[in-house]
Structure formats: structure tokens, C-alpha cells
Amino acid sequence: MKSPLHEVHEKLGATFTTFSGYEMPLKYTSIQDEHINVRRKVGIFDVSHMGNIFVRGKDAEKFISKVTATDASSVAVGMGAYTVILREDGTIIDDEVFLHLEDEYMFIPNAGRNKDIEAWFREHAENMDVEIKDVSNKFVIIAVQGPLSEECLKSVVDFDLGTLKLFACKELKKGDEKVIVSRTGYTGEKGYEFYITPTDEGKKMFYDILEAGKEYGIKPIGLGARDTLRLEKCFALAGNEFSGGRTPLEAGLGWLINWDHEFIGKEALLKQKETEYEKLSFLECIERGIPRHGHAVEKDGKKVGMVTSGTFSPCLKKGIAMAYIKPGYEGEKEFDIVSGNKKIKAKRVKPPFVKKGEC
Amino acid sequence: MTEVRDNLLYTESHEWVLKKDGVVRIGITDYAQEHLTDVVYVELPNVGDKFSKGDEIATVESVKSVSEIYAPVSGEVVEVNGKLDDEPELINNSPYDDGWLAEIRMDDESELEKLLTPSDYEKKLD
Hints:
The complex is a heterodimer. Chain A has helices spanning 6-11, 31-40, 60-67, 114-123, 149-153, 199-212, 223-232, 238-241, 266-273, and strands spanning 15-19, 22-27, 43-46, 53-56, 80-86, 92-100, 105-108, 131-134, 140-145, 169-173, 178-182, 191-197, 219-220, 279-285, 296-299, 302-313, 318-325, 334-339, 342-348. Chain A is an alpha+beta fold. Chain A has a six-stranded mixed sheet with strand order 10-11-12-9-3-13. In chain A, strands 14-17-16-15-18-19 form a six-stranded antiparallel beta barrel. In chain A, helix 2 crosses helix 7 (223-232). The longest helix of chain A has 14 residues, at 199-212. Chain A is globular and about 60 Å long. Chain B has a single domain, classed as CATH 2.40.50.100. Chain B is 15% helix and 34% strand. Chain B has helices spanning 30-36, 90-93, 118-125, and strands spanning 9-10, 15-19, 23-28, 39-43, 50-51, 56-62, 66-70, 75-80, 102-106. Chain B is globular and about 35 Å long.
């Protein structure tokens, strides 16, 4: 599948990659230049490969509280939340942001997951007054991220974006032609995401932002930099960090669970809390080398974990990795990351790898 | 746009070969560097190392992935591009010139006949 903005990317000279079945820009110039541009100035991303599922009806709040780890009554109109959708056994089906709009909720599932999520939602909506609608292919999603994001959007958006708190959202246009904005992102920088239908309007907006952002040094950013940006901030990528069935406790997402309500998977998580389990850990290389997905983590020659995501950090100029490490090694500071006969020494660090304003 | 140079020969695995007197200079193509993305580490062979055609001769590691580079011809390494240690980005910025990898004294010049011509390589990229 292709993004509705595919032609735009071709004109901008993108190199493409396939991600979750979508042909998306990998980069336009260089991953590191694009990365640094977002950290220091601003960048624009096409993330139309992400989905859009609307949930509405009298029981919408009750329904969302059941199918996510979030108590939806705590999310007011005009706010959003980052949450997880769990199976009965507590493992993550998908992590996503949902927004509480005036008359409905919008979920933004990961690329290629919209059909599965829609089916899961329908299956668990029995006897509830909710309408669930997957409209993923009708929307363009644009992320504008970086310290200058608010300034560069001033002339494009007729609304004071400075009033939006983290995770807040606003419907700028309602009806058949929708423009929704949220103060969210996947880079760890200040930023906004726009959800636009019809897609032609989204295309126009992409160009408008690119034009208005010129004086702020805006650049289009591909999925390559999107990955390095999220990794430096220790944000999970569903296909990597949750694959094989991981619970939010293992993935370090325990903080987003509201324990005071009933939700699918809660029982299993309460049980897991009483046990010892593998935890997602953050490793920074102290030797030259780049950890990759699938590399082993060893302590004194014994395998104690596995890398789920790894890259070269453009800000730190060294290898960084996220890895699940077995219980019993919490106190250990140094590990080897091993691939074939290659070993890279790495130390455990507290997330994120790159702190605010550090780059 | 991806550049394919007329004065070079190519391999299926995206290496290029420049014929000089008795030796060949090798590197990776513009297409290869585009898809590798930003090169950050390069491991080169040592001068004097001998390789058969198809052996792993170098490793190029980028932000996104790691790639083995295969010897396009058999022979002995007579020179390597030491500049790449400090400036691995030369491979991205100048894949056919400043970003060359090594020079090999060939065992058998007829191996060149088996490499792809510029037009064959261009067809492969389409």
C-alpha cells in the first residue's frame, strides 16, 4: 500500500522502504541530518500508515475503559491518552494514542493493525451501545515535531496551538472535511499531529506546512529518523518491543495502567506483579559497534536477554539498544551484546538515552 | 536519481569495479549507499590479504543496517581507503570517487568479463 502523499515524497526525492505493508519514505537526504533537524529545529513526517478508528455511542467511555488499560472517565473532552490494548493474558495487542473529541473518540492504531483492532473492538462491544468505524484509508496523518514546531505552524493553523497541553487535542474542522490536531508525537520533542480527511486536503496541508516552515529550517523526515528519534527517547515500537507477546509490565509501561477500573488483561497483570519477569532495559554501548534487533545480551558468557531494537544514536554518536533482560540481573551494570563472533560492551542506563535539549 | 557510471563494471550485489593497470579499484554503488543509509562504520581488509571472488572483503555498517561487501574479483589487496575510518560518510557523499574501498591486484583478468556492464546493471535496478 502507498500513502496518499506518495507522489509528494517522490517529488521530494525520497528513498522508500516497506513498513508494515506500506511503502513509505525511509529518508529524503540523510537519516542523521533529518534526526538532528528535528532535535534542533523542526521536521514534518507523513505518518498516514497509522490508522484511524472512531468509537462513538452512549457506552463509548465504558467500552474504552474495558478494552484499554486507561480509565476513559479520566480523559476529558479535548484530551487524549497513550494506552495499551491487552489480551486476557495481559500481553499487548497494540499500543496507541486515543483522543477524546467532542462527539466521539478517535484511536490511532499502529500501521497495518487497524483491521485487527477493529475486529477486537467489535468482538468486545457486545451489549454495548457503541459504533466502531475503521476509516484509516480516508485520512492523512502529518506529524510536525521539534522545538520550532509551534512557531512554524502559526501561519498555517488558525488556532493558538500554544494552548494545547501534552496529549490535548482540538477539532479544527468538523463534518465531512475534518482536521484534528493533537499535541502528541513519537520523537520526544515538542510537536503536533494532524489528522485530515479528505486526503487531498491533507496533501495541501503538507505542502502548506513545508512552505511556512522554510524560514524555520523545516525538513521532511523519513521513517529512518523516526526510528532513531524514538529509540533515543526509549519509546517502544510495537513490532519490535511487543512481539512474541509482552505485557505492559515487562515493556516498562506499568505507569500507564489505571488499576482502579476493570479491563481486559487486568487479572493476568495483577498475577504477574507478584512474580519476577523479564524487563525492558536500556543499554548504551561503551565500545564501537551497533546493536541490532535479535542480538543476544550476555553476562559473563551466559545469555541473559535479547535486543529488540538497536541503532546508532545520531545525538550520542554511539550504539544504543533496548533489550529484555531476565530477572536476577537488575543490579548488573555491564553486559555484552553479541552477534556471531562479535561482542560489544554496553552499560545499562536510565531512560531516555538523550535528555531534553541534549543534542 | 541513482547514478550508474559508464566507465565502471558492476556486480549483482551492488559493488562497482574500476579497471586500472593490472589492478582494480572497488566500492559500492550509489544505489547501495542510498539504501544502506548513513554509513557510520567501515571495516576494511588489510593490505596483503587475499580473496577469492565472492568472499567477504569488507563490512559497511549504517544507521539502519550492516552489509557485507563481497570481493567482485579474486586477488590481493594492494591498497585500502584509510580515509573511511574517520570519514565513513564519504561512501554516501561520493560512492564512486572519494568513497572507494580498496584496490585489488587481480589473479585472473578474465573474471572482469563476468561482471555486469553499466546497461545490465541499470536494467537490474529498474
